[in-house]
Amino acid sequence: MKKEFGLMIFFVVLIVSVAELIGMQFISIGSTTITVLPLVFAVLLTMIFGLPVLRKGILKKVYSKNNINFSAKYLLYIMLPLMARYGADVAPRLREILSVGWVFLFQELGNVGTVLIGLPVAILIGLKREAIGATLGLGREGELAYISEKYTLDSPEGRGVLSLYLIGTLFGSIFFSIFAPVLLSVGFDYRALAMSSGVGSASMMAAASSSLVAIYPEQETTILSYAAASQLLTSFIGTYTMVFVAVPLQRFMYNFLTRRSENGKEAN
């Protein structure tokens, strides 16, 4: 077991090193610049090497059940340094952020959007308990922590939130790096877009804010501090919104929609 764990640590360091060597890539499509973060390359490489057809020999030991269980259990601890980084970005612009602080609170209304819109769609396409994990939020750190503690990541709910976490890491940052410049081009203020970058995902926030910085390099400090403050607020207040608003609402909607679906099948 110790040998398998050592191989996993070496593999992680290797993958991270390769991803950092690739670095942040900017792909220009017309007037839009897509930002691809090293995190995306790290996740993509890890997923490729984890395919059953390649999972042989040393890789089979790296992706052993013990290592997978360990990674799932302690995944949340690697998020803690991010919280410290957000605080460091916010502090220099704290007075300016507090002057418009009430605006940040409006974004919390969007935390229930995944339940109101995503849950009915998930059930419609055939998801069962996986829909609970997949639609509680954007499937980021807060939702991952809640679902893993309540249901464990080996449950259907855990598979739902983990799948969304990986999809968000791969495609979410690319989507946000495109979406932010597009909104900027139609007249949105860069500060408003910087505020909206903090959706609870470090990779999505970095992609969106980096795209804005590429367009307004002279406003880099303002953009990054607003984005970090928004991210910090989402991570903090969003947790309470999730527990006291999103979870009860989702439970009610899930019971109502699944009961209605079952009644419909019986009628047929």
How would you sum up this structure in a few lines?
74% of the residues lie in helices and 4% in strands. The chain has 268 residues and is mainly α. It folds into two domains: 1-74, no CATH class; 112-260, no CATH class.
Estimated share of beta-strand residues? under 5%
Low-confidence stretches: none
Tally of helical runs: 14
Task: Return Rg in Å.
Answer: 20 Å
Sheet with most strands: strand arrangement: 1-2
Distance between the termini: 53 Å
Secondary-structure element order, N to C: HEEHHHHHHHHHHHHH
Structural class of the secondary elements? mainly alpha
The gross shape turns out to be globular
* Total discrete domains: 2
Question: What share of residues is helical?
Answer: over 70%
Largest sheet: 2 strands, antiparallel
Number of distinct beta strands: 2
- Provide the residue-averaged pLDDT: 80
Keywords: Membrane, Transmembrane, Transmembrane helix
InterPro entries: DUF3100 (IPR021450)
Transmembrane segments: 7-27, 33-54, 66-84, 104-127, 164-186, 192-216, 223-247
Protein name: DUF3100 domain-containing protein
Structural summary, described in words:
Helices cover 74% and strands 4% of the residues. It is built from 14 helices and two strands. A hairpin with a 2-residue loop joins β1 and β2 (32-36). Keywords: Membrane, Transmembrane, Transmembrane helix. This is DUF3100 domain-containing protein. It holds the Pfam family DUF3100.
